[in-house]
Amino acid sequence: MDDRQLFAQFQTHFPARPRDGAYERLRDSLTRAGVRPRRTVFRVELPEPSLRLLATVVAVILIALVVTSAFISLFVFAHRAVQVHSPKFTSSCTQGFQMTDLNTGWSGASTRTTDGGKTWRTLSPPRGLGGECIIDGQRAYVARGTMVASSGPVEAIVYATDDGGATWKELGSAPIDNAKSLITLEFIDRANGWMLVEPPRLAQGLTRILYSTPDGGASWTRVSASGSSGLEQTSHQCGASGLSFINPTTGWITWECAQGYANTGVDLGPTAVVTTDGGRHWMPAILPEIPRGGTTTCMAGRPRFAHQGGAGVLPVYCSDPKPWAAVYRTADAGKTWTYGSLRDPAFYRQVSFVDPRAGYAYSNDSKKLYRTLDSGRTWSLVAQDVLGGAVDQLDFVDAQHGFADLRDMSGQAIWTTSNGGRTWRSESPQAGDGGSSCQPYSKPASPVPIAAFAGAVAWAQGALRTTDGGRHWTETGPPSVANRVAGTAEFYFDADVAWVAETAGSPTSCADSVIVFSTADGGRSWSQAAALKLALAKPEQIFDSTTAAASRQQPNGISSETFMDFTDLTHGWLMVAARAPTEPPTSVGPIYRTTDGGRTWSRVSDGIRGDANCGPWPSMRFATSNAGWIGDQACGGPATIYVTHDAGATWASEHLPAPFGSSVSAPVFVDDHYGFLPIGDDKGTTLISTDGGATWSTLQIPVPNASVYFIDRAHGWAVGRDFSQGRIAFEATADGGRTWNVRELPPFGFTSTISFVFADPGNGLASIDDKLYRTNDGGRTWIPVPYQISPAG
Amino acid sequence: MVDRSGADLIRAAKLGDGAAFAELLRPDYPLAFKVAYGLLQDYDAAEDAVQDASLKAWRRLGNLREGTSMRPWFLAIVANQCRETRRSRWWSVLRGVDRLDTTAEIPVDVAASFDLRHALAQLNHDDRLVIVLRFYLDLPVDEVAATLGITPQAAKSRLHRAVGRLRPIVVSQEALV
Question: Which residues of B touch A261 (CB under 8 A)?
Fold first, then answer.
């Protein structure tokens, strides 16, 4: 796909116009808003030039005094021991990033850490839209809106885990209006829970419903609904930010109105409502000094209360016409609230209370961390510029130990402090310039088969291995190296022999070294080769993380980027594909080679560097101990590929008989002579070589955008998406591609991720999203395989 | 109807005339919306983001240097607003809506659109922004650079890197079916 195609795709598939009346709505809101732009230049006029020197001297002295006193105050404050007076908060639900102790934490219900944020494991909670509730390190709930049958009733089904997300058990369900409903959960103990179901945003006319359970989630009873209970007092444009009970009768709902609705001029109702009858009736919570009326929109965080004594805190933020934030405190379990300034409105999203008195707040604007020891009456500066990026969430486990989630779309980085926020360090290696977080390694959540062999043995991504056709998988992989980050290459040679390359970062680099492990006994024991120091150009950046697992037989099944290849038990290659901001895009290298089965590796080439506009496609394959290929991007030119005939020492570009502008990955050889190279165009073009890659001829497969998979010279499968017909084609050949026959695939969504492997012409495994299927008739029929994943040993 | 010049409008907007500021934004509104939609992939969120960005832009109008084009300046504010939106809790709640939609029967063009959106969503903010500006808005590289606050050469380089990251995702999604 070249740039023109990409451009055409954007123009074709993206809506191009704002909705009718959008500009008029903006104009109306601007007309009502009454903003006065800030002046940016301030000037003080001194009457006499002779006075300027005097004024300057006075100003310098005053500034020096202020700075000195501030420094002394900061020093004294920072070294004062924190006194924790108040009991801890109640242990009801939390959401999002949450550390439950110094080691265990969750990022939603889908990822979890047990080593203080150094590594995160992907979990598989039931899929769908709904609510989540983290109780402690082991127990969590999720609720999912689900249509029971096509065009049938819709339910919110509640699931729970007691083993840190390893398994989820269905508890019970409640009827809801819409599968896309927003769901907020609350449990105060093993028995009593609540579930607030809200219509999707802007879905007017639907009902907001509160359910409760007295039996741990097995049965749900409708307690109240918008209409007359007080739940309707908040605009449909607002959603619950928290549902919080302190006992079976008393609880709060706090509302969060999306930004942008500030300008509707509609009274959005109270910011928090309270119930004293278990949720049947709700009344506005009285919050003194909160801005009201006009175009003001407020949102509140979830209130938190101490186990005993009724002390609690409630953060509130109001926007427009002027940002405003407060921490309300209560000493009577929320009957009355006292206003306390949050000092800087920018604190609102990053405020964390350890108990009702001690809390921390961080501003991404000023990069300052403040602390309060008196429920927000006063705030003192703890530190400034101590975190390497914008904080998404702040979470203090106790007065000394805190975590900051610096997650962005590019990845997640957890920073920790053990001295009350004075100093912080990254738990995941940072790029040298401190500007980017390294992508941590995460284990696969479900088996994605990579290679299948006789005897029902198969390997899956992450060195999962099965010996019973996929029902039981064992995590056989080598131990993770210290500071392991994304950037894994795996190669499965047969049922017992495999290599796994892991990437390690360091405090100054995301990709400091690569360590290759090898096994010859199915993963029961691993040998470790000496670390390959990468010494990437500064500033080092994120190691290209999509070095997906691949076996010799696996073409494009997981990813076209293959960085490790073996032609026999002794000869192998490892290609590093890193990227740095100062380097041209799509360079690959260095390339390492082993001739002793991975015990030792030597650098054979610096790799291939692209120019400012184009470069190699990061994909490498070898057919023999000397002949290998690296893919290339056409970038609007003829199709080419890089070839080596001296075991990777030198590489030369060669033309391919493929359509102009085709970018190609490296070919896959089923033996020394016979290789396939799918082009991936809409005509199903595939190149085939019978002479070890010396010449290539064209094979047209009746599968557009085909990925091909051959297990020998005769037997192969092709799968591809036909955009013109809106179908997915899957066909098989038993004569080297001359004729093809339609095959079936297990049920899948149009956007599902499908991967399959075959041990022989009949037996194969397919993974579709997180489900696993097996065939014994070459793909004519598939049956689901329920599976388990167990740790080694 | 009285036709006011750009300078008059800016002067009036600086004095607090919302209608004047809206008039200044009118030519760029469709583009701003497209930037927001490209980054957020949600009509409501995009409209909200542009609205919020407009208020911020109005407050910062004093920062706009005389003689500077308003469009890149405004688009940059919209892009920053989208970054903030993606960080908010609301966004994290609503993001799941798209995921749920994928299980439904999807017509082919919608599916292709989803693929592109899904691929785009896997890029980081900076990569996504440069792709949206160039391929979705069809802005010339000079204007992309002005919006990003970098040199045209750096914009080209960033664009190539972003495309290099997007292309394998799109292609692999095609391959992975």
Answer: 48
